[in-house]
TrEMBL record:
Gene source species: Aureobasidium mustum
Family named by the database record: Belongs to the multicopper oxidase family.
Protein name: Laccase
Keyword Metal-binding in annotation: yes
Domain Plastocyanin-like intervals: 1-54, 65-214, 297-419
Length: 455
C-alpha cells in the first residue's frame, strides 16, 4: 500500500479508484502525497497525523505548519528547464498555502500571511507539527523572540532539547513545543530558505504570524534572526546548507545497531553526456528507471520476478538482517535521502568521501526516515551519508533523494525485501492486478509513456 508507481502499484488510470489500507503502527506527524511525476509539488499532498504519546507535556495543540516553495512557473515547466540547466530559483515559500505575492508586495500587496488561529496565552505551552513539502528548498524555522523544545523527528519521539532555530529538510517532520513566555504582542514565525542549498528570491520573507491574546493584532515588527552571510554578488545568501545536528536527535526508545550482513554503497554523480543531452543523476553509473505499467510488486506477485528496468539499482535483501547503505558524492550539493517502509538509523554524515576511518554511531543513533547527505563543504567538496535498517518488513521499498528534480532525474534505488514472503503480505491481489490492467490499455490509447525516472 506504499503508493509508489512502478514499484508497489501501476499508475491509476483516469476514471478508476484505489483504496489504501494500512495499520497505523508508527505515530506522529507525516503526510500523504502523489509519487507520479511532480504531482505532489503541484498540490497533490496533505497532512496526516497519527496520535500517540509525547516525550514532553503541553497545554494546547496549535496545529501544523507546512512549508513549501513556490514559483509563478509550474513545476512541470521548471523541470524541463532543470533537465537542461540544473537547479532552479524559486520565487518564495508558502506556509499552509499562504504568503504575500513577492512580485508586487512593495506596490499593493496581494495574498496574506498565514496567522496561527490559536492565540498565545502567557504561561501556556503550544504543540506544533512542522513539515517541509518543498520541491528543492530547505529551511530555518523559528519564531521571533521565542525558544522552543523539539520532541519528535519524523515518526520517532526524541529526548526533548531546546533551540531557537530549527533546520528542516525536504520530507522531514518535527514536533515542537513553544512556551508563550514573551511580552504580549504580535510575532512573526519564519521559514528562512537556506540559499546555500538552493536559491529562493524572497528567501527571508516567508512568514506567518502569532498573536498573543490581548495584543494589538497588527502586523508584527519583531526582529529576525541574524545569520552569517556569503557574498554571492546579490546582497549575500544564508551561509549554511545543513540539517539538525545528529547529536541532538536522541531517540527515547534506545536501540543499537549490529554489524552489517549486507552493505550497499553508491557514488552519486550528475551528467548530461548520455545521448539525450539532458541531466540525469547516476548511482555508480546507473540512473533509476521504473515502468508505470509494470510495477515491481505486480511482477513478484504474478511471476515471482523483478523487472529489470532499474538494473542493479533493484537490490534484494533477506529478512532478519542489517543492511548498511553508504551514499557519497563529489558534487558539492546536499541531498535529503528518504527510505520508504522503515525508520532507519543514521550512523554518520559529513563532508568528503566515506572512508574506513569514518566513525559510525551504533549506540542509539538517530532514527528517522529522511536524513541529509551534506554538500558544499568548506573547500567545496561533496559529502557522505551512512544509514542502516533492519530487514523486518517484507515489501518493495523506494529509496530516493527528496529534491523533486533529482528523483525525477533518476536519483533513486529500490530494495526488494524478503521476496519469498512478499506475496503473502498482499491480501488484495485483485486490486493490484486491476490497477495495472486498467492502466495499460488507457496509456496505449492515449500514447502515454514514462519520460522521467518513473517515480
Amino acid at each position: 500500500m506504499d503508493g509508489v508507481v512502478g514499484l508497489t502499484q501501476c499508475a491509476l488510470a483516469p476514471g478508476h479508484s484505489m483504496t489504501y489500507r494500512w495499520i497505523a503502527e508508527s505515530y506522529g506527524f507525516s503526510w500523504y502525497h502523489s509519487h507520479l511525476t511532480l504531482q505532489a509539488y503541484e498540490g497533490l499532498f496533505g497532512p496526516m497525523y497519527i496520535h500517540g504519546p509525547k516525550s514532553a507535556d503541553y497545554d494546547v495543540d496549535a496545529g501544523h505548519l507546512i512549508i513549501n516553495d513556490w514559483s509563478h512557473i509550474t513545476p512541470d515547466d521548471m523541470y524541463n528547464d532543470a533537465q537542461v540547466a540544473g537547479v532552479r530559483t524559486m520565487d518564495t515559500g508558502l506556509i499552509n498555502g499562504m504568503n504575500i505575492n513577492p512580485l508586487i508586495k512593495d506596490v499593493e500587496p496581494t495574498g496574506q500571511r498565514y496567522t496561527v488561529p490559536t492565540e498565545f496565552v502567557p504561561g501556556k505551552k503550544y504543540l506544533f507539527q512542522l513539515l517541509n513539502s518543498a520541491i528543492q528548498s530547505t529551511y530555518k524555522f523559528y519564531i521571533d523572540g521565542h525558544k522552543f523544545t523539539v520532541i519528535a523527528a519524523d515518526f520517532v519521539p526524541i529526548e526533548p532539547y531546546e533551540t531557537t532555530v530549527l533546520s528542516i529538510n525536504i520530507g522531514q517532520r518535527y514536533e515542537i513545543i513553544v512556551e508563550a513566555d514573551q511580552e504580549v504582542g504580535d510575532y512573526f514565525l519564519r521559514f528562512d530558505n537556506q540559499n546555500a542549498c538552493a536559491t529562493t528570491t524572497n528567501s527571508d520573507d516567508i512568514r506567518g504570524i502569532i498573536h498573543y491574546a490581548g495584543s494589538p493584532g497588527l502586523t508584527p515588527n519583531s526582529t529576525a534572526h541574524t545569520y552569517p552571510r556569503k557574498d554571492n554578488g546579490a546582497g549575500g545568501i544564508l551561509g549554511t546548507c545543513e540539517d539538525e545536528p545528529l547529536a541532538s536527535l536522541v531517540p527515547i526508545l534506545k536501540k543499537s545497531v549490529s554489524s552489517p550482513h549486507q552493505t550497499v554503497q553508491h557514488d552519486v554523480a550528475v551528467s548530461n553526456s548520455n545521448g539525450i543531452n539532458l541531466y540525469r543523476w547516476y548511482l555508480d553509473g546507473t540512473t533509476f528507471q521504473a515502468n508505470w505499467g509494470d510495477a515491481t510488486l505486480y511482477s513478484i506477485v504474478n511471476n515471482d520476478t523483478i523487472p529489470t528496468y532499474s538494473g542493479d539499482l533493484a537490490i534484494s535483501t533477506s529478512l532478519g538482517e542489517w543492511v548498511y547503505v553508504i551514499i557519497e558524492s563529489p558534487v558539492p550539493l546536499g541531498h535529503p535521502i528518504h527510505l520508504h517502509g522503515h525508520d532507519f538509523y543514521v550512523l554518520a554524515a559529513g563532508y568528503g568521501n566515506y572512508g574506513s576511518g569514518t566513525a559510525l554511531n551504533l549506540d542509539n543513533p538517530p532514527r528517522r526516515d529522511v536524513a541529509f547527505m551534506p554538500g558544499d563543504g568548506p573547500t567545496g567538496q561533496g559529502g557522505h551519508l551512512v544509514i542502516a535498517f533492519f530487514t523486518d518488513n517484507p515489501g518493495v521499498w523506494l529509496m530516493h533523494c527528496h529534491i523533486g528534480w533529482h528523483v525525477a532525474m533518476g536519483f533513486a534505488l529500490q530494495f526488494i525485501e524478503g521476496q519469498e514472503q512478499i506475496k503473502d503480505t498482499v491480501t488484495d491481489t485483485c486490486m493490484l492486478n486491476d490497477v495495472c490492467n486498467n492502466w495499460r490499455p488507457w496509456a496505449h490509447e492515449k500514447g502515454i509513456w514514462v519520460d522521467d525516472s518513473g517515480v
